[in-house]
Specification:
Blueprint lengths: L45 H28 L1 H10 L1 E7 L6 E2 L5 E9 L5 E7 L2 H8 L2 E3 L2 H6 L8 E3 L2 H5 L1 H4 L4 E7 L5 E4 L11 E2 L4 H18 L4 E6 L6 E7 L41
Parallel strand pairs: 2-9
Antiparallel strand pairs: 1-7, 2-3, 3-4, 5-6, 7-8, 10-11
Length: 291
């Protein structure tokens, strides 16, 4: 029978370093610990070299495999692609600036829609088309004359051709976004570069009063129809500072209908003649409004 057993103690490996079991640990010789004087160096474990070598070998294999895939496996394909493909720069339409009346109400804004190719485009949307169209004017696709003059920046499809849209075109017009697309011989898009987003145009605040403009247009339109006039015009301005509060010209048109598919909806009564800006015939008196 065993009445006692020798007690076993467990020692943690690495708990003591070789230099701590010698008298040198007391730093009798006044060694500089910052310079590691009097410290016995311990060589690195072989396992550390094996791990490092394995990682280095793995990295080399991955790099070699990638080069093999690009140069050998698909080298001919990429060569043909470089010979047949080309880069096309595409532009993204910028939204034009918004036009406000004197009270800060929006008169002309932008309406986003998706084109046939999936890109986002904008068309102008006016608050009351027939009341404001002659004042605001309209947009039209750039002409060869515009390109020759150099007044149109690259990527712009439409410019102001009349009214406020034309006079303040440089301010209302934004900066188009850009993107490079790689196309194959058939015209299919293979890849796209990061998008440079478009920058919106500047806003404009007019002296017109939107509600007064709409009511004034309705009054002249009803009077013109009831008396059988072909058209009419009227201007209301402030006697204090001369600011134009309302300017109406009839016959008017729908600003949003000035598109290739919408000309059939526009009245055929000299709708583009802006009578309020200048009379076609000299008026016999200052109270003569009708032509």
């Amino acid at each position: 029978m065993v009445f006692w057993r020798r007690k076993k103690y467990k020692y943690s490996p690495g708990g003591l370093t070789p230099d701590e079991i010698f008298l040198d640990a007391e730093n009798i010789n006044d060694f500089s610990r910052e310079r590691f004087e009097g410290v016995i160096e311990k060589p690195l474990d072989r396992k550390a070299f094996q791990v490092f070598g394995g990682l280095l070998l793995l990295f080399g294999l991955v790099l070699f495999g990638r080069v093999f895939w690009l140069e050998i496996a698909r080298g001919q394909e990429f060569f043909n692609r470089s010979q047949n493909n080309y880069i096309r720069k595409t532009y993204i339409d910028p939204p034009r600036g918004i036009i406000f009346d004197r009270r800060g109400q929006q008169i002309l804004t932008n309406e986003a829609y998706t084109d046939a190719d999936g890109s986002i485009r904008y068309r102008r949307k006016v608050r009351h088309a027939y009341a404001f169209s002659h004042v605001l004017g309209f947009l039209k696709e750039i002409s060869p004359e515009d390109l020759v003059s150099g007044s149109v920046q690259a990527g712009i499809a439409e410019v102001g051709k009349d009214g406020i849209e034309k006079f303040y075109n440089d301010k209302l017009e934004g900066v188009p976004g850009e993107r490079d697309e790689e196309l194959d011989a058939s015209g299919s898009v293979l890849s796209r570069s990061p998008l440079i987003p478009p920058r919106e145009g500047g806003d404009i605040k007019l002296t017109l009063d939107a509600e007064l403009q709409e009511n004034f247009w309705r009054l002249i339109d009803e009077t013109s129809r009831s008396r059988g006039f072909r058209g009419g015009a009227g201007i209301i301005f402030s006697v204090k500072d001369g600011a134009i509060l309302s300017m109406v010209s009839l016959p008017s048109f729908d600003l949003n209908a000035l598109r290739p598919h919408g000309f059939s909806r526009i009245p055929k009564r000299h709708f583009l003649i802006v009578r309020s800006r200048g009379p076609i015939f000299p008026a016999p008196s200052s109270n003569h409004l009708w032509l």
